[in-house]
Amino acid sequence: MKKLVLLGAGYGNMRILLRLLTKELSDDIEITLVDRTPFHSIKTEFYALASGTIPDSDVRVALPIHDKLKVVEGEIIEIRPDEKCVYLDNGLQISYDDLVIGLGCEDNYHNVPGASENTYSIQTIGKSRVTYEKLLGLGSGATVGIVGAGLSGIELASELRESRPDLKIKLFDRSPRILRDFPERLSNYVKAWFDKHNVDVVANSNITKVEPNILFNHEETISVDAVVWTAGIRPVEPVQNIETEKEKSGRVILNMYHQLPAFSNVYVVGDCAALPYAPSAQVAEEQAEQIVRVLRLVWNEEPLPEKMPEIKLKGFLGSLGKKQGFAYLADRTVTGRIARLLKSGVLWMYKWHNG
C-alpha cells in the first residue's frame, strides 16, 4: 500500500483530492489529509468574515468523503523528510511514501517591534474570528488601522467601511499609489472609491513600531483603537524549519516537478513554494494540477517529462464592498459592478466544484 499524505486542507490540496479521488484511483493508494480543522476554509473571503459581512459558515467547505481518504485533525509541529515522517502536537506520528506540503503562510511582521503582539490578523479562520470580535466591539468613532494595501488590505478596508460606516479607517500603503504594479486606471478607480467612502489611504508609509493603540509611521505617531496587519506573508514555522534551500522570503525552492531537490517524494504546493508569481489560490490550484500529473507518472513507474508546462494565470479579481469591484484579466482592466459579479460567480463555481 502506497501512502500519500497531504498536509493542509488549502486550495492546492483540495484540487489534488478533487483530481485523485476518482474511479481511476488505484486500490494500492491510501491518502491521508492532515489539518487543524475538519473542513476547508475559503481564505480569499476571510476579509469579509473579519468585517462581519458574512457568517462563518460561508467560508467553510466540507472535506470530501471517500473510502480511500483518511482525515486526521491536529497541529503539525515538525516535518522530517529524512525520516519520511510528520509529527503532530497531539503526539501522532504519520509516515508517508509521498508527501505534499500545503500548509500556507503566516503574517510576516518584517521585524517591526510590537507588530506581532499588538495587531490582528486574517491569515487563518481562527484569527479572522478573533479580529471580527475585536472590530465588532469597537465603539462609534473608533479608528482602525490596516497595515498593508495589497489585495487583502484593500478588500478588508472596503468591506469594513460598508459594515461599520461609523468607524474611521486608515489604510497604510508603502507605495506611492494603490496597486502600483498594475495599470494606473485600476489604481485610480480603487483610490476614488476610498476617497468617496472616507477611507484614508496613507501613501508612502513605513510602519516602524506598533504599541497598544499607537502606530508609528516614519516619525509620526497615530492613535488607533485596533490594527489589522496585512503587510506580507511568510511560510509557516514547520516549513521554515525544514533543512532545504529557500529564497530570501523563506519560501522553499523546488525543482520543475514541484519537489524538494533532495527528496523527490516531497512536494510543496501553494504559499510556501518559491515560484515567480505572487502567492494566490489560483497559483496553488495550477501547481496542484501539475503535481497530480507527476504523482500519477511516478505511481505508474513512467518517465517524467523533460519539461513541465509554464503555469499561466488568468489574472485577479478584487472586491470593494458588496457592490463594486476591480479585475485585471488578460491584460485588461475591469471595474465596477461587472467585476464584483465576476468575483461572486467565481466563488460560487468554486463552492459548487468542491461540493
Question: Can you walk me through this structure?
Answer:
Its EC number is 1.6.99.-. It comes from Filibacter tadaridae. Belongs to the NADH dehydrogenase family. Keywords: FAD, Flavoprotein, Oxidoreductase. The structure is a single chain. The chain has 355 residues and is an alpha/beta fold. It folds into two domains: 135 residues, FAD/NAD(P)-binding domain, CATH 3.50.50; 123 residues, FAD/NAD(P)-binding domain. The protein contains nine helices and 23 strands. A six-stranded mixed β-sheet has the order 5-2-1-9-20-19, with no helix packed on it. β6 and β7 form a beta hairpin.
In short:
Pfam families: Pyr_redox_2. This protein has 355 residues and is an alpha/beta fold.
Write out key terms for the chains shown.
23 strands, single chain, 6-stranded mixed beta sheet, 2 domains, FAD/NAD(P)-binding domain, 355 residues, alpha/beta
Helices and strands in order, then pairings?
Layout: E1 2-7, H1 11-20, E2 29-35, E3 39-41, H2 46-51, E4 60-62, E5 69-73, E6 76-80, E7 85-88, E8 93-95, E9 98-101, E10 105-107, H3 115-118, H4 125-136, E11 143-147, H5 151-163, E12 168-172, H6 184-196, E13 199-202, E14 207-211, E15 214-217, E16 220-223, E17 226-229, E18 233-235, H7 237-240, E19 259-260, E20 263-268, H8 281-299, E21 315-320, E22 324-329, E23 332-336, H9 337-353
Parallel strand pairs: 1-2, 1-9, 2-5, 9-20, 11-12, 11-17, 12-13
Antiparallel strand pairs: 3-4, 6-7, 7-8, 10-18, 14-15, 15-16, 19-20, 21-22, 22-23
GO molecular function: NAD(P)H dehydrogenase (quinone) activity
Enzyme class: oxidoreductase
Protein name: NADH dehydrogenase-like protein YjlD
